[in-house]
Design a protein that fits this description.
Elements lengths: L1 E7 L7 H4 L19 H4 L31 E3 L12 H9 L3 E4 L4 H9 L3 E4 L2 H11 L5 E5 L4 E4 L2 E4 L4 H8 L4 H6 L2 H14 L3 H4 L4
Parallel strand pairs: 1-2, 2-3, 3-4
Antiparallel strand pairs: 1-5, 5-6, 6-7
Length: about 210
């Protein structure tokens, strides 16, 4: 269960280069990217790896710089969010800023996979439901309640259902990585292997000791 304030980013086709600009991709670190999230939109002056971001000039017109939304943990976006390259840095930047969920009508496929792997819930709602949330956010800071187990997002008088795969839920609710999520299915894997061996016993001769 997660309760958080929404940042409404009303833009379509936001690609990973907009989320995490390429000039920061030379870093080999896996964290510390929160200050450069949406860098080209967030600041009035350009930045690079050597910049002191605390001294840069924020763009007061960009939603992430709204003082009323400071500490927000849910990003509301439009269709095809996270399209473009497969860089995992984009999700790292969202996570490091503090976002724990992104809500949109659709996502780039690889970006959506990277979200669950890094503790950010990729929540798909119907376009009309996303628009209803944008309308609510225009009235003032919007708080939502997200239940990953039940697949439910509540906001004011509205409640919306969403779907996550069992693996996504496991990654988001337990401290496991992709390998751990696979190992959690070891009983199903063993059952499949036993059933396959019963149907194709000649495999035992090809793979002795399995």
């Amino acid at each position: 269960m997660h309760r958080g304030i929404v940042v409404p980013l009303d833009r379509r086709n936001v690609d990973t280069d907009a989320i995490f600009p390429k000039q920061y991709g030379r870093s080999t670190a896996k964290s510390g990217y929160g200050p450069v999230l949406f860098d080209n939109w967030r600041y009035l002056d350009p930045g690079d790896l050597d910049s002191d971001h605390a001294r840069r000039r924020p763009d007061p017109g960009f939603v992430l710089n709204d003082p009323a939304l400071r500490g927000a943990t849910v990003l509301l976006a439009e269709e095809n969010f996270g399209c473009g390259s497969s860089r995992e840095h984009a999700v790292w930047a969202l996570r490091d800023y503090g976002f724990r969920a992104v809500v949109a009508p659709s996502f780039g496929d690889i970006f959506r996979q990277n979200c669950a792997l890094n503790g950010v819930a990729p929540i798909v709602l119907a376009p009309r439901e996303v628009r209803a949330l944008f309308d609510l956010a225009q009235l003032g800071p919007l708080e939502v309640l997200i239940d990953v187990h039940e697949g439910r997002l509540a906001a004011g008088p509205h409640a919306f259902a969403f779907q996550l795969t069992p693996r996504q839920r496991l990654l988001l609710t337990q401290d496991v990585d992709w390998i751990g999520a696979t190992l959690a299915q070891r009983d199903r894997i063993a059952a499949f292997e036993a059933e396959r061996l019963a149907r194709q016993p000649w495999l035992a001769r090809m793979f002795p000791g399995r």
